[in-house]
Amino acid sequence: MSTLSLPFPQPLTEKYRPRTIAAFVGLEKSRRILAKFAANPYSASWLFVGPPGTGKTCMGLALAEELRAEVHHIPSQQCTVEAIHDTVRRCWYVPQCGTFHLVLIDEADRMSPAAQLALLSKLDSTAFPPQTVFVFTCNSTDGLEPRFLSRCRVLEFSSYGTAEEIANLLRAVWDAETDTSADGPPNFARIVKDSHNNVRDALMRLELEILAAA
Prior knowledge:
Blueprint: H1 12-15, H2 28-39, E1 44-49, H3 56-67, E2 70-74, H4 81-91, E3 101-105, H5 113-122, E4 132-138, H6 146-149, E5 153-156, H7 163-177, H8 188-194, H9 199-212
Parallel strand pairs: 1-4, 1-5, 2-3, 3-4
Helix pairs in contact: 4-5, 7-8, 7-9, 8-9
């Protein structure tokens, strides 16, 4: 067996999760916009829209790290009216690190109409909590009300045209995680194709190849 520097069971998706905005594969326009925002931040609400595995949640966490923000993460399908009120209430206090609060809400398109309604007033300029950045992620905006969308800066996340960059990432991970005596590398381009340019899926497939390496 090859010697792995990766101490499993830590998954590759976590070990190689980008911690900075600049570290993301592709997403040039989104990276450029968010890098400028992080350099001169202000209270705002963002909606990251795109298919699974394009880095929406990871980008929200990377933005939080660059802002040195206190993170309030509401996972998928847990965005209830009660959770919204409780989180926003905490955002009215000075953040622990003294910079910003960042509220990260996954799969906002699965929010109930009541949750969306509760957020409308919170995202209004007259009731927006100070020093707070909201980041919502979703696969599609179909289930979101126009009034909610009008309160967010919408960023599209796409994996189009990123196949070569993802393959290069897989190659770098393979080289870092396998011994030089390992068998020949897998077909990285094929892994990317089978993963439909989904970086998370591609890394999980590569993890199996590394475990199987002899």
